[in-house]
Amino acid sequence: MARLVMILLGVDYLRTRWRGLLWLGCASVLLGVVLFVDALDNAIYFPMTPFAVVLLLEGLATLVVARSGMGGQRTLRQVKGASFCFAALLILAGHHHGNFVLSMIFGTLFLADGLLQIVSARVVRFRTWRLAVAVGGFEILVAIFFFQPYPTHYVGTVPYCLGLGLIFGGWNLLVLASRLRRLDHNPGMDEADAAPAHATPAAHAAGDAPELTLWEGPPGPGERALAVHVWTPVGSARGEARRQPLVDRYIAAVDRDGVISTGHAALESPEGIYISLYPAEEIDRSPDEFTRILRATRENDVAGKFQPDYETEARAWCPSTVQVRIRNYDAERLRRFWEAYRQDTTYNLTYRNCSSTVSHALEAALEGASARVWRLARGWRPLWRLLATPELWVAAQIRKRAKTMAWTPGLTLDYARALSMLADPRPSGWASMTRMALGQMRRQRQDWHAGRAAAGDGPAPDNAANAANARNATRGAND
After folding, report:
1. pLDDT tens digits, residue range 36-85?
2. What is the pLDDT of residue 198?
3. Cβ(324)–Cβ(230) under 8 Å?
4. Is pLDDT above 90 for 275?
5. Minimal CA–CA distance to 111: which of 87, 147, 76, 83?
C-alpha cells in the first residue's frame, strides 16, 4: 500500500511529512502490540461492547448510503456495511459462539491468502518469490493461531485482529516514511502543480472545502478521458467458454475445444498514445504447455509487438469487452513512460504481458492524481481522506495479488476501476444522500405549489422569489 499512496499523492506532498508518518507508524505499531499482548490472558481491558456498537452503527450507515454510489462503488460499500454489521453482531453475541465464529472466519482468510501466495509464488517464480513464500508461511501461522483455542478460548479474537491491523498498518507507514526520507525529488511531479486542462471541474460535496474536486459520475461519451480497454477471457474466447467461476474471471477461460483464452488489456489516451503489448508469434496455450510458460523466467521471454491503435486491433480481433475511463491523468507522464517502455518489446506471459504493461502505464499516468484533486490543500487532510477511502485498500490488495501472481486482464480491470474512484473521486455517501434528500424536498414543494394552482387555491410560482412576491401582493390587497 505504501507504493500506491506514493503514486496517488506524489512524492512532493509526502516528502515534507515523512517525520510525521514515521511517528504515526511507530505509535500504530506500539498500540497494536499493546492490544495484542493484552488479549493473551482472560483479563481483557479493551471495551468490546462500545466498539461493537460503533462498528454496527458504521455498518448500518454504510448500507443506508450505499445506494447513492454507482456500479462497483455501490457493491463495495454494500459488502463493507454487511461485513461490519455481521462482525458487530457476532461481537455483541459474545460468549463462546460469537468469538468462535469470528476466529474461524479470520483464520480461514489468513489460511487461504497464505496458501494462495505460496502456491502462486512457487509456480510463477518471480524475482522475489522466496520472500513471498515466507510471508505466506507467516500468514498460515497466524491462521493456526486463530484456529486453536489457546490461550483465551477465542475470547481475545477481536483485540488480536485489531492489534494485527494496527501493527501491519503501522509497518506500512514506516516503510512509506523510510522511502520518502531517501527521496530528494520526484521528476514526475514537475507538471503536477496545476490540474490538467482536460480535468474539468466537478461538483463539490456538501460540507467539503472548495479545494476538493469531485465528479458526479464517470466521464461522458464526448468527454476527454484516458481509456483502459479490457477483453475478458470469456468475452474474447473463440468458442463457447465452459463457465468456471473466478477462474474464467481472473485467470483464463477454456472453450469447448480445450483452447485457453487469457483475455487482453490495452490503454488509450486522447493524445494518440495506444499501449497494447502482444506476442509477435502466437504462444502455444494448450493445457500441456500452459503450466510451463507461466514461470516468470528468462527462457519464457519471447518477442513482442505493440499494436498501432484500438481500431486496428478491434477489427483484427473483436471490440473490447469493458472500458474504464478516467479524466484526471497526466498526459506528459504517460508520454515519458511510453517513450521509455516501448524501447523493449520483450513479452513474457507472466511478468511482462499486456496487463502488466497497462497497469504500469496507468500508474505512471495517475501519479500525483490525488494531489491534483487536492491541489489547494496543504495539511494532512488529503492523506487521511485517501486512507479512509475503501477503494484504496481494494486497489492495494489487487496490486499485492498481481505482484505475487501475475497481472491478468481481470485484475487489471478491477485495479483500473478502483483507481478511477481515487483519481476521479465521487461525492461521499452522506453528501450524496443530503443532496438527494434536498432535491426530493424541492420537488415535493414544487408539486405542492402546482397542485394548489391547479385547484385554484393560489398562484403557482416558478421559484421562491415569485412565491414571495405573490404573498406580498396578497397581503397588500388585504390591507
Report:
1. 888 887 667 778 888 889 888 888 887 876 665 555 567 777 888 888 89
2. 42
3. yes
4. yes
5. 147
**Which residue spans within 114-245 are E strands per DSSP?**
226-231, 241-242
Amino acid at 94: G
CA–CA separation, 144 and 133 (whole Å): 17
3 state DSSP class of 269: coil
Distances (CA, A) of 292 to 281, 299, 300, 302: 17, 10, 8, 14
Inter-helix orientation angle 390-404/95-124, to 10°:
40
**pLDDT bracket for residue 477 (50, 70, 90):** very low
- CB within 8 Å of 126: residues ≥ 6 apart: 132, 296, 350, 351, 403, 404
Q: Residue ranges per domain, the chain?
A: 2-189, 226-378+412-427, 430-478
Residues listed for the chain: 479
Task: Indicate the pTM of the whole model.
Answer: 0.76
Q: Which residue has the cell 505466506?
A: 136
Cα–Cα dist 422/219, whole Å: 14
Top pLDDT among 166 and 214 is at 166
Q: Cα–Cα distance between 255 and 260 in angstroms, integer?
A: 7
* Distances, alpha carbon 86 to alpha carbons 56, 89, 252, 395, 421, in Å: 8, 5, 33, 24, 26
Listing DSSP states for 199-243 in one string gives: S---PPPTT--TT----SSSPPTTS--EEEEEE-TTTT-SSPEEP
**Is pLDDT above 70 for 223?**
yes
Q: Is 326 helix (H, G, I), strand (E, B) or coil?
A: strand
Pairing of strands 274-275, 264-268: antiparallel
What angle is formed at CA 358 by the lines to CA 353 and CA 364, rounded to 5 degrees?
130
